[in-house]
Amino acid sequence: MKKWEANIRKVTPYVPGEQPKRADVIKLNTNENPYPPSPKVAEALRQISAEPMRKYPDPEARQLVEAIAREEGVRQEQIFVGVGSDDVLAMIFLTFFNSEKPILFPDITYSFYDVWADMLRIPYEQQPLNDAFEIESRDYDKENGGVIFPNPNAPTGALLGLSAIEDILAHNQDVIVVVDEAYIDFGGTTCTGLLDSYENLIVVKTFSKSRSMAGMRIGYAIAGEELIRYLNDVKYSFNSYTMNQAAILLGTAAAEDRAYFEETRQKIIATREQAKKELKRLGFSFADSQANFLFVTHERVPAEELFTVLKEQGIYVRYFKKPRIDNYLRITIGTDEEMGQLYAFLRDYLKKR
Ligand SMILES: *Cc1c(COP(=O)(O)O)cnc(C)c1O
User: Fold this and answer.
1) Is residue 353 over pLDDT 90?
2) Could you report the per-residue pLDDT of 100-133, keeping only the tens digit for each?
């Protein structure tokens, strides 16, 4: 071993879902939105010119922050934007999780949390979901250095009600509590209404799922002004220009089109409710997802086998070979047509099997 190797920060990176090169794939593996971004985004894109790109972008991304604040009904000083919510969450870990005590998050959850904690050397303790794959709020009633969970949770889709969230907040007033609402627009109620009562709450949202803009990389945190100031201090100590010119303009256009946002999220909710019926009929069971995916297990056929035959068929879903969930598939809600092809293939395969 070389001497310098001892001083390298060695990490086990997060592994994102596959982005296949072939175009003819039915892609239900990374929770992207099957519908395009708002037509207002396409219009704004046509108006972008190259000349302003010689200058640095607005480090405060003021235009985008204003549009988000207006949509969320909060003050601009309560919004922090970043390069996808992954960037926002990483900044939150760096800024707020500096205790010797472990931070708490579920055992089955977004698999980036333990990666950031390991990279930043933050101690953590994972709280097991119950047998129905739900978060038990009393598990978060113990000494800790911070709390984070997605709501709805990923990859289960299970929604925690506002009273359970308030219960977690009430028992954790000495630490920062982060609610990752990547999927909240598909059926849950945002907990931003609790911000006025709990100054230690941070709510994180993204344009990647409900606004169909995963490729543009836009996410944000909503919190009290004081916490947002701390986040900005860390951001400006790291990289002042996280949001590029195009992301600021196109994100603003997306945020301003509330009608299109409503229309697409309702379409996905309707397709998901139909998917629950179809998949139940085919012998699958699942937690009652309020997200844009279902986390399913089949009564007879192993998940890994289904993952493989679906992939051969050009239908990509997500399979995690991890304890407790290695017989489950996470299926993103696509268009009605894509879902129809999924049901048809499964119907046929399961009949012969
Ligand atoms: C998708 C996702 C994110 C990150 O999304 P970005 O594309 O980085 O905004 C964060 N948390 C959860 C739970 C997610 O599923």
Assistant:
1) no
2) 999 999 999 999 999 999 999 999 999 999 999 9
Three-state secondary-structure class, residue 26: strand
Q: Sheet containing 284-286: give its strands across.
A: 284-286, 293-298, 329-332, 318-319
- Residue 114's pLDDT is what? 97
Calpha distance 332→34 (Å, rounded):
9
Are residues 88 and 61 in contact, defined by beta-carbon separation less than 8 angstroms?
Answer: no
Q: Say if ligand 1 is within 6 A of residue 208 CB.
A: yes
- What was the pLDDT predicted at 1? 81
In angstroms, what is the span from residue 85 Cα to ligand 1's centroid?
6
Q: Which pTM was predicted? A: 0.97
Pick the atom of ligand 1 nearest to 83's CA.
Answer: 8
CB atoms under 10 Å from CB of 89, counted, come to 25
Instruction: Name the DSSP letter for residue 352.
Output: H
Does residue 229 carry a pLDDT above 90?
A: yes
Task: Decide the pairing of beta strands 219-223 and 79-82.
Answer: antiparallel
Pocket mutation for ligand 1, best pick of 180, 181, 320 (most atoms within 8 Å of C-beta): 180
* Overall average pLDDT of the 300-305 stretch: 98
Closest ligand 1 atom to residue 150 Cα is 13
Query: E-assigned strands of 139-266?
Result: 147-150, 177-180, 201-206, 219-223
Residue holding tokens 């205790």? 99
- Cα 206 to averaged position of ligand 1 atoms, centre (Å): 7
CA-31 nearest atom, ligand 1: 1
Task: State whether the beta carbon of 219 lies less than 6 angstroms from ligand 1.
Answer: yes
198 lines ligand 1 (CB under 6 A): no
Residue nearest to atom 5 of ligand 1 (CA): 85
